[in-house]
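Re: the request from the purification team.
They wanted to know what the chain is likely to look like in 3D before they choose a buffer screen. I agreed to run a prediction and write the result into the notebook, where they can find it.
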Amino acid sequence: MLRNKILLLVLLISISLVLIHLQQSCSSTKIIAEYRTDTIYTNASATGNLLEFKFRRGPEHNYPLMAVWIEDTAGNYIQTLYVAESIAKGVFSYGDKSTGKWMPGPMRRPAALPVWAHKRNVKEADGLYVPTQENPIPDAYTGATPQAHFVLLATTDKELPQYFYVWFEINQTWDWNSYWTNNKYPDDTEYKTSCQPALIYRVLLSMDETGQPKQMQLIGHSHYSGRDGSVNPDLSTITTAKEITETIVVRIVN
């Protein structure tokens, strides 16, 4: 009896030590990410204009998906500067559980970045605007989602017009709140992959302002399940999603 109690005590101590180690590891990773700044280069071999996009993560940042693109002042899509690799390739790290454990596999998430997807306006055979494994975004415009603050240095395909907009869309799953609850749309599977809808930021740039940093402004949110590319300016129901991002500053380098 005493032996069993001792074994149980040893087991409980071991479990406690493991949990403490995991908590310290997660805390250390988060602290490192909070102080580190990564640099991402996209489309580096192109001969257009070089844009610098500085993103500072907020306290609610936790593996979000992102897209950055350009439009002219009439709202016409020009090109993508960056999009998260999982969306760009149609493959997620946790996309296949057929073997009993999560493995990389095909997955499409129309609710993740729907404004970018509809602006890009490439409709796949199944009617969705999300890239597929068979028709992915080229490697030059994509990469893994950075977990720290980051600087994106993106070269455009060609020289930009005098005035243009830079757009940014960000979405993070599992960020339910009192309005966007997990049973708000019980029959909508796409909604459940998005939770609070994607947030949309935008800034107008002019070639006359080359070298001058300008801060992007939050202008609205996407459709909750990605059915269209609309931007809803009502942000009254958005809470923690606003804290995924602290600041985003863009400038024309040359």
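For the purification team: Confidence is low (pLDDT under 50) at residues 7-30.
Please add any questions underneath this entry.
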